């Protein structure tokens, strides 16, 4: 048959040619977000990580709004209405720079905006969603509490009726963007069950305190929300949200973004290690020439491409309306673990250089420690998978 039919050698950066199955629009969105992230975010992220904050969160929000990534998978109200795969690709390219930056977008779009879009009144949607999509208003999502993480149903935040108003008391913890948010989506237990409320910044009795001394997700603003006798009108309640299923459905949207995002972090670590191994010379040879290094690289290739395939398949299922929440758990469980393995191996290949911010690998490795536990811990997703295939719940 001749050599003209011999397949081309695989691309080291997309070994299984996963991205060749993207359509033109998906490829364009990928390229647009990747170019923005490389140009506007990557040169600064190490400094932000070292400083433990985002110096200009409102400027970043406006830039993300101009890019069109806030709530991009939602329909109407200034949102782009893209496919789930397109949104996933945006998450992948952002987290290839830093998990904290993808979290900024996920919390705004998949948590706060999705809660309003799915459960809010028409007035609430019109008031908040266009401004949030444009990056002119920032939202946060208050579910987790100091003593209520994996078991949100045990939350202690309470909302009680007082005439036609509601009075909220409680504390929320580990809230991304809490101290810079214009509106907080807060979940509370009432006599009728769990309900959601929109709490605008500046409401009397509502405060947000920045959490300092983090060793992970440092290029991100994390806060504690305190509600001390916060009085809200009935119009602040999300009318469509009834029960724990409402906030959990929003969390599933955020978990979906993580499935893609960590694939980007893994790819970034792998590419950094591949380049470093090819240029770092020891014993007269680049360290990529040694068998132990090549084994690490081979394992990374498998993890990076498996994560990319997993994200794409779950995205296709989501776009077809056929994605079960346990399949998202599968993706988070598998892809976070894969990304952690890749980041750890990449750090070892970099040697002492791997612990500095001159290279991205330890920054990603530390960030992934947070990603492994938020939006459902590794253990919770393992139990979700176990129940899905055995039919036996093991949570209690």
Automatic annotation (TrEMBL):
Residues 25-136 form the Acyl-CoA dehydrogenase/oxidase N-terminal domain. Its cofactor is FAD. Residues 140-230 form the Acyl-CoA oxidase/dehydrogenase middle domain. The keyword Phosphoprotein does not apply. One of its GO terms (molecular function) is fatty-acyl-CoA binding. GO terms for biological process: fatty acid beta-oxidation using acyl-CoA dehydrogenase; fatty-acyl-CoA biosynthetic process. Keywords: FAD, Flavoprotein, Oxidoreductase, Transit peptide. This is glutaryl-CoA dehydrogenase (ETF). It comes from Marinactinospora thermotolerans DSM 45154.
